[in-house]
Amino acid sequence: MTEPGAADALRELAALAGQLAETVAPPALKDAPRTITAVAQLYFGAAACSIAALDDEAEELVYIASSGAGADAVVGIRLPVGRGIAGWVAQSGQPIAVSDLSRDVRFARDVAESTSYVPTAILAVPIETDDELIGVLSVLDRDDARPGAARDLDVATMFAAQAATAMQASTAFTDAGRVLLTALAAAAGNNTGLAEALAAAPRTGESDAELAEFAAVLAEFRRSNPEQRAFALRLLRDVLAFVHRPGGGRSSPSR
Q1: Rounded-to-integer distance, Cα 146 and Cα 181, Å
Q2: With the C-alpha atoms ordered 214, 219, 225, 227, is the resulting torsion angle positive or negative?
Protein backbone atom coordinates (compact mmCIF):
# COMPACT_ATOMS: atom_id res chain seq x y z
CA MET A 1 0.00 0.00 0.00
CA THR A 2 1.17 3.51 -0.75
CA GLU A 3 1.31 5.87 2.26
CA PRO A 4 -1.36 8.67 2.19
CA GLY A 5 1.28 11.39 1.92
CA ALA A 6 3.05 9.62 -0.92
CA ALA A 7 -0.24 9.01 -2.70
CA ASP A 8 -1.03 12.73 -2.56
CA ALA A 9 2.42 13.54 -3.95
CA LEU A 10 1.92 11.05 -6.77
CA ARG A 11 -1.46 12.54 -7.66
CA GLU A 12 0.16 15.97 -7.75
CA LEU A 13 2.91 14.61 -10.00
CA ALA A 14 0.29 13.21 -12.37
CA ALA A 15 -1.52 16.56 -12.43
CA LEU A 16 1.71 18.43 -13.18
CA ALA A 17 2.92 15.90 -15.77
CA GLY A 18 2.11 18.17 -18.70
CA GLN A 19 4.20 21.01 -17.29
CA LEU A 20 7.06 18.79 -16.10
CA ALA A 21 7.30 16.90 -19.39
CA GLU A 22 9.56 19.52 -20.98
CA THR A 23 12.25 18.71 -18.40
CA VAL A 24 12.64 15.27 -20.01
CA ALA A 25 14.12 16.72 -23.21
CA PRO A 26 17.94 16.95 -23.23
CA PRO A 27 19.27 20.54 -22.86
CA ALA A 28 21.06 20.33 -26.22
CA LEU A 29 17.76 19.50 -27.92
CA LYS A 30 15.92 22.38 -26.27
CA ASP A 31 18.73 24.76 -27.29
CA ALA A 32 18.82 23.52 -30.90
CA PRO A 33 16.52 26.23 -32.39
CA ARG A 34 18.66 28.96 -30.81
CA THR A 35 21.81 27.32 -32.19
CA ILE A 36 20.26 27.13 -35.67
CA THR A 37 19.33 30.84 -35.65
CA ALA A 38 22.85 31.77 -34.49
CA VAL A 39 24.52 29.75 -37.25
CA ALA A 40 22.08 31.02 -39.88
CA GLN A 41 22.64 34.63 -38.84
CA LEU A 42 26.39 34.14 -39.25
CA TYR A 43 26.05 32.33 -42.59
CA PHE A 44 23.78 34.96 -44.15
CA GLY A 45 25.68 37.90 -42.67
CA ALA A 46 22.31 38.96 -41.30
CA ALA A 47 21.32 41.45 -38.63
CA ALA A 48 19.01 38.86 -37.05
CA CYS A 49 17.42 35.45 -37.50
CA SER A 50 14.43 33.91 -35.77
CA ILE A 51 12.31 30.76 -35.56
CA ALA A 52 8.59 30.85 -34.87
CA ALA A 53 6.56 27.72 -34.09
CA LEU A 54 3.00 27.32 -35.32
CA ASP A 55 0.36 27.03 -32.59
CA ASP A 56 -2.48 25.36 -34.51
CA GLU A 57 -5.07 25.75 -31.77
CA ALA A 58 -4.51 29.48 -31.36
CA GLU A 59 -3.78 29.97 -35.08
CA GLU A 60 -0.68 31.94 -34.14
CA LEU A 61 3.07 31.88 -34.64
CA VAL A 62 5.04 31.83 -31.39
CA TYR A 63 8.65 32.98 -31.58
CA ILE A 64 10.77 30.38 -29.76
CA ALA A 65 14.33 31.35 -30.77
CA SER A 66 16.16 34.39 -32.09
CA SER A 67 19.68 35.68 -32.61
CA GLY A 68 20.99 39.15 -33.37
CA ALA A 69 19.27 42.52 -33.18
CA GLY A 70 16.21 42.57 -30.91
CA ALA A 71 16.65 38.87 -30.06
CA ASP A 72 15.64 39.11 -26.39
CA ALA A 73 12.46 41.01 -27.22
CA VAL A 74 11.43 38.69 -30.06
CA VAL A 75 11.20 35.42 -28.11
CA GLY A 76 7.67 34.96 -26.81
CA ILE A 77 5.98 37.25 -29.33
CA ARG A 78 2.77 35.83 -30.79
CA LEU A 79 1.70 36.73 -34.31
CA PRO A 80 -1.65 35.71 -35.84
CA VAL A 81 -1.27 33.47 -38.87
CA GLY A 82 -1.65 35.66 -41.93
CA ARG A 83 -0.24 38.78 -40.25
CA GLY A 84 3.24 40.04 -41.09
CA ILE A 85 5.66 38.45 -43.53
CA ALA A 86 6.17 35.38 -41.34
CA GLY A 87 2.41 35.07 -40.90
CA TRP A 88 1.97 35.19 -44.67
CA VAL A 89 4.52 32.39 -45.07
CA ALA A 90 2.71 30.31 -42.43
CA GLN A 91 -0.59 30.83 -44.22
CA SER A 92 0.64 30.28 -47.77
CA GLY A 93 3.39 27.73 -47.16
CA GLN A 94 5.58 29.64 -49.63
CA PRO A 95 9.09 31.06 -49.09
CA ILE A 96 9.59 34.77 -49.74
CA ALA A 97 12.33 37.38 -50.05
CA VAL A 98 11.42 41.06 -49.69
CA SER A 99 14.14 43.64 -50.32
CA ASP A 100 12.17 46.75 -49.28
CA LEU A 101 9.76 46.16 -46.41
CA SER A 102 8.65 49.78 -46.36
CA ARG A 103 6.81 49.13 -49.63
CA ASP A 104 5.19 45.82 -48.58
CA VAL A 105 1.75 46.10 -47.02
CA ARG A 106 2.15 42.69 -45.34
CA PHE A 107 4.96 43.96 -43.10
CA ALA A 108 3.88 44.24 -39.43
CA ARG A 109 5.90 47.35 -38.57
CA ASP A 110 4.34 47.72 -35.11
CA VAL A 111 5.58 44.26 -34.12
CA ALA A 112 9.09 45.08 -35.37
CA GLU A 113 9.09 48.39 -33.48
CA SER A 114 8.23 46.56 -30.26
CA THR A 115 11.59 44.75 -30.51
CA SER A 116 13.54 48.01 -31.00
CA TYR A 117 14.79 46.77 -34.37
CA VAL A 118 12.98 47.54 -37.64
CA PRO A 119 14.46 45.64 -40.60
CA THR A 120 14.52 46.86 -44.17
CA ALA A 121 14.60 43.41 -45.79
CA ILE A 122 13.56 39.87 -44.93
CA LEU A 123 13.90 36.33 -46.22
CA ALA A 124 11.43 33.86 -44.72
CA VAL A 125 10.82 30.16 -45.38
CA PRO A 126 8.36 27.60 -43.99
CA ILE A 127 9.54 25.00 -41.49
CA GLU A 128 7.86 21.76 -42.56
CA THR A 129 7.69 18.08 -41.71
CA ASP A 130 6.73 15.45 -44.28
CA ASP A 131 3.06 16.38 -44.07
CA GLU A 132 2.57 19.72 -42.30
CA LEU A 133 3.93 23.20 -41.71
CA ILE A 134 5.12 23.68 -38.12
CA GLY A 135 6.83 27.07 -38.19
CA VAL A 136 8.72 29.80 -40.03
CA LEU A 137 12.40 30.71 -40.23
CA SER A 138 13.08 34.43 -40.84
CA VAL A 139 16.36 36.10 -41.81
CA LEU A 140 16.52 39.90 -41.43
CA ASP A 141 18.76 42.24 -43.43
CA ARG A 142 21.09 39.58 -44.84
CA ASP A 143 24.18 40.54 -46.80
CA ASP A 144 22.88 39.96 -50.32
CA ALA A 145 26.14 41.18 -51.90
CA ARG A 146 28.24 38.31 -50.53
CA PRO A 147 29.28 35.37 -52.79
CA GLY A 148 26.56 32.73 -53.14
CA ALA A 149 23.74 35.03 -52.03
CA ALA A 150 21.69 34.04 -55.09
CA ARG A 151 21.12 30.63 -53.45
CA ASP A 152 19.94 32.03 -50.12
CA LEU A 153 16.36 30.79 -50.42
CA ASP A 154 17.60 27.25 -51.03
CA VAL A 155 20.07 27.43 -48.14
CA ALA A 156 17.43 28.92 -45.82
CA THR A 157 15.21 25.95 -46.67
CA MET A 158 18.03 23.65 -45.56
CA PHE A 159 18.27 25.50 -42.24
CA ALA A 160 14.49 25.19 -41.91
CA ALA A 161 14.74 21.42 -42.42
CA GLN A 162 17.20 21.21 -39.52
CA ALA A 163 14.84 23.30 -37.41
CA ALA A 164 11.97 20.96 -38.26
CA THR A 165 13.96 17.95 -37.08
CA ALA A 166 14.88 19.66 -33.80
CA MET A 167 11.33 20.86 -33.15
CA GLN A 168 9.85 17.42 -33.89
CA ALA A 169 12.33 15.72 -31.57
CA SER A 170 11.61 18.20 -28.78
CA THR A 171 7.86 17.65 -29.17
CA ALA A 172 8.34 13.89 -29.11
CA PHE A 173 10.37 14.06 -25.87
CA THR A 174 7.78 16.34 -24.28
CA ASP A 175 4.85 14.12 -25.28
CA ALA A 176 6.64 10.96 -24.14
CA GLY A 177 7.59 12.62 -20.87
CA ARG A 178 4.00 13.62 -20.15
CA VAL A 179 2.66 10.12 -20.85
CA LEU A 180 5.40 8.40 -18.84
CA LEU A 181 5.18 10.74 -15.82
CA THR A 182 1.42 10.25 -15.66
CA ALA A 183 1.78 6.47 -15.95
CA LEU A 184 4.58 6.29 -13.37
CA ALA A 185 2.47 8.19 -10.86
CA ALA A 186 -0.49 5.89 -11.56
CA ALA A 187 1.65 2.75 -11.31
CA ALA A 188 3.13 3.73 -7.96
CA GLY A 189 -0.19 4.95 -6.57
CA ASN A 190 -2.11 1.82 -7.58
CA ASN A 191 0.69 -0.69 -6.95
CA THR A 192 0.50 -1.86 -10.59
CA GLY A 193 3.15 -2.46 -13.21
CA LEU A 194 4.24 0.28 -15.61
CA ALA A 195 2.90 -1.63 -18.62
CA GLU A 196 -0.57 -1.86 -17.05
CA ALA A 197 -0.48 1.82 -16.06
CA LEU A 198 0.51 2.87 -19.57
CA ALA A 199 -2.25 0.77 -21.08
CA ALA A 200 -4.78 2.46 -18.79
CA ALA A 201 -3.32 5.99 -19.08
CA PRO A 202 -5.82 8.70 -20.09
CA ARG A 203 -5.43 9.86 -23.71
CA THR A 204 -5.63 13.51 -24.73
CA GLY A 205 -5.28 12.73 -28.43
CA GLU A 206 -4.36 10.14 -31.03
CA SER A 207 -0.61 10.77 -30.59
CA ASP A 208 -0.87 10.17 -26.83
CA ALA A 209 -2.73 6.92 -27.42
CA GLU A 210 -0.05 5.70 -29.82
CA LEU A 211 2.74 6.77 -27.45
CA ALA A 212 1.15 5.03 -24.48
CA GLU A 213 0.56 1.84 -26.46
CA PHE A 214 4.12 1.80 -27.78
CA ALA A 215 5.57 2.50 -24.32
CA ALA A 216 3.40 -0.24 -22.81
CA VAL A 217 4.73 -2.73 -25.35
CA LEU A 218 8.32 -1.71 -24.53
CA ALA A 219 7.64 -2.05 -20.81
CA GLU A 220 6.22 -5.51 -21.45
CA PHE A 221 9.47 -6.52 -23.17
CA ARG A 222 11.20 -6.40 -19.79
CA ARG A 223 9.41 -9.63 -18.98
CA SER A 224 10.85 -11.33 -22.05
CA ASN A 225 14.10 -13.26 -22.07
CA PRO A 226 17.22 -11.87 -23.84
CA GLU A 227 16.65 -14.04 -26.90
CA GLN A 228 13.06 -12.80 -27.32
CA ARG A 229 14.14 -9.16 -26.88
CA ALA A 230 16.88 -9.55 -29.49
CA PHE A 231 14.37 -11.03 -31.96
CA ALA A 232 11.92 -8.17 -31.35
CA LEU A 233 14.70 -5.60 -31.82
CA ARG A 234 15.64 -7.13 -35.18
CA LEU A 235 12.02 -6.92 -36.31
CA LEU A 236 11.78 -3.27 -35.25
CA ARG A 237 14.96 -2.40 -37.13
CA ASP A 238 13.62 -4.09 -40.26
CA VAL A 239 10.40 -2.05 -40.01
CA LEU A 240 12.32 1.21 -39.56
CA ALA A 241 14.58 0.38 -42.52
CA PHE A 242 11.47 -0.12 -44.68
CA VAL A 243 9.81 3.11 -43.47
CA HIS A 244 12.92 5.25 -44.03
CA ARG A 245 13.78 4.00 -47.49
CA PRO A 246 12.72 6.36 -50.36
CA GLY A 247 8.96 6.04 -50.78
CA GLY A 248 8.73 3.32 -48.18
CA GLY A 249 5.56 3.42 -46.10
CA ARG A 250 5.14 7.20 -46.47
CA SER A 251 1.89 8.88 -47.36
CA SER A 252 1.78 11.75 -49.82
CA PRO A 253 2.45 15.14 -48.19
CA SER A 254 -0.57 17.35 -47.73
CA ARG A 255 -1.35 20.65 -46.05
Answers
A1: 50
A2: positive
The predicted-structure confidence for 124-156, as pLDDT tens digits, reads as follows 999 999 889 999 999 999 999 999 999 999 999
pLDDT of 184-239, one tens digit each?
A: 555 555 555 544 544 555 555 555 555 555 555 655 666 677 787 777 778 777 77
SS3 97: strand
| Helix (H), strand (E) at residue 65 | strand 60-68
Alpha carbon 199 to its chain's center: 26
What is the layout of strands, in order, in the sheet containing 78-80? 78-80, 60-68, 48-55, 133-140, 122-128, 96-98
For residues 50 and 156, what is the distance between their CA atoms, to the nearest angstrom? 12
Distance CA 26, CA 9 (A): 25
How much is the pLDDT for 2? 45
**CA dihedral angle for residue 239, residue 242, residue 244, residue 250, rounded to 10 degrees:** -100
Alpha carbons 67 and 139: distance in angstroms, whole number: 10
